[in-house]
């Protein structure tokens, strides 16, 4: 999944420019965006029906997912966080996350639950996987950080429409007109931003 196509430079430029936009948001803007996103999150059927929800800890100017996690906990939903697989390169594990979970930094410096096989849940047993993204377009195409972790995780859902339903989370400023698409890219059926819920 190494990016060597002609679109590589364009994708890298989009990552840089879109990350800069969200990093430039003020604390107040971030707070308002998180509150608006929570309102959508609370009203979406997929979330209301879900018992096991995968979220992630926000970094790099991403929308703050803390209110979403706390909302799930308040309704006794099980929350899971992605953990980089220690042996299977480019893949994710999903570990149960609760207020007392011990967090450790991964190789990218992002906090994740300390690996304990007792806390692992196979991805297909999740109800919803909330996915981070760098940019998205009007067709639901998602541009990630380039590691392919979520594309690999979501490929079974995309190919068979079975298992956990993916929902992208993003600031409105992360929308672009059109993304250069590669064969391995997995488009999302739903993306939530502070201003609206996109569905395809």
Task: Explain what you see.
This protein is an alpha/beta fold and 200 residues long. The protein has one domain: NagB/RpiA/CoA transferase-like (Rossmann fold). The protein is built from 5 helices and 11 strands, in the order αααβαβββββββαβββ. Strand 1, helix 4 and strand 2 form a beta-alpha-beta unit. It is globular, with a radius of gyration of 16 Å. Keywords: ATP-binding, Ligase, Magnesium, Metal-binding, Nucleotide-binding.
How many strand units? 11
Structural class: alpha/beta
User: Strand order within the widest sheet?
Assistant: 3-2-1-6-9-10-11
Largest sheet: 7 strands, mixed
CATH superfamily label: NagB/RpiA/CoA transferase-like
Helical content stands at 25-40%
- Give the name of the CATH architecture: 3-Layer(aba) Sandwich
Radius of gyration over all CA atoms, rounded? 16 Å
- Sketch the topology as an H/E string, one letter per element: HHHEHEEEEEEEHEEE
> What is CATH's topology name?
Rossmann fold
Strand content: 15-25%
Label the overall shape.
globular
Highest CATH level, the class: Alpha Beta
Q: Kindly report how far apart the N and C termini lie.
A: 25 Å
Are there runs of 5+ residues with pLDDT below 50, and where?
none
Secondary structure tally, helices: 5
Q: What is the residue-mean pLDDT, rounded to a whole number? A: 91
Number of domains: 1
Keywords: ATP-binding, Ligase, Magnesium, Metal-binding, Nucleotide-binding
Catalytic activity: (6S)-5-formyl-5,6,7,8-tetrahydrofolate + ATP = (6R)-5,10-methenyltetrahydrofolate + ADP + phosphate
Protein name: 5-formyltetrahydrofolate cyclo-ligase
Organism: Enterovibrio norvegicus
């Amino acid at each position: 999944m190494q990016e060597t196509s002609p679109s590589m430079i364009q994708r890298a430029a989009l990552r840089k420019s879109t990350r800069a936009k969200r990093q430039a948001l003020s604390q107040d803007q971030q707070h308002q965006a998180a509150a608006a996103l929570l309102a959508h999150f609370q009203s979406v059927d997929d979330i209301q029906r879900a018992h096991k929800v995968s979220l992630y800890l926000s970094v790099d100017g991403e929308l703050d997912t803390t209110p979403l996690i706390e909302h799930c906990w308040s309704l006794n939903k099980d929350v899971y966080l992605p953990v980089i697989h220690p042996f299977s390169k480019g893949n994710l594990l999903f570990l149960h996350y609760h207020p007392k979970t011990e967090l450790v930094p991964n190789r990218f410096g992002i906090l994740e639950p300390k690996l304990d096989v007792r806390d692992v849940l196979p991805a297909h047993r999740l109800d919803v996987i909330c996915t981070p993204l760098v940019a998205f377009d009007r067709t639901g195409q998602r541009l990630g950080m380039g590691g392919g972790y979520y594309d690999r995780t979501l490929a079974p859902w995309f190919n068979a429409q079975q298992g956990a339903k993916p929902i992208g989370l993003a600031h409105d400023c992360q929308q672009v007109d059109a993304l250069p698409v590669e064969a391995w890219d997995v488009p999302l059926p739903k993306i939530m931003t502070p201003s609206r819920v996109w569905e395809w």
